[in-house]
Amino acid sequence: MKLKNILIVVKDIEQSKRFYHDLFGLDVVLDNDGNVILTEGLVLQDEQIWSRFIEKDIIPKSNACELYFEERDIEAFAEKLEKLYPSIQYVNRLMENSWGQKVIRFYDLDGNLIEVGTQMV
Predict the structure, then answer these.
(1) Which residue from 23, 44, 92, 111 lies 20 to 30 Å from 13 (Cα-Cα)?
(2) Would the pLDDT of 107 be above 90?
(3) What's the topology of domain 1-58?
(4) d(CA 103, CA 47)
(5) Residue limits of the VOC domain (predicted)?
(6) 0.90 exceeded by the pTM?
(7) Got the DSSP string for 53-105?
């Protein structure tokens, strides 16, 4: 068995497709009416569809998981994030951990937690 995809719930599919393309370069592999598969295995699902499946409320900013990306030029990424999405909500702006890794954490447009860090070798 292998893990195939990670699914996150979003309110506006088109807005989320732009967000993940603009910041991370993810492209659409399949767009199937409220269920969009992006490169790297990220799946966006419309909140209304997901709510019907699980019959529970969606809790944005639950902080129960995060999407993790690595970026070599994290300073340039932080500038791009600020320029493209100046009202983004940060958990922490660009910082350096005690072990030397630089990271930035923020919520996407739907409250999904994202961490971008420099590569750990």
Answers:
(1) 92
(2) yes
(3) 2,3-Dihydroxybiphenyl 1,2-Dioxygenase; domain 1 (3.10.180)
(4) 29
(5) 2-119
(6) yes
(7) HH-S---TT--S-EEEEE-S-HHHHHHHHHHH-TTPPEEEEEEE-TTS-EEEE
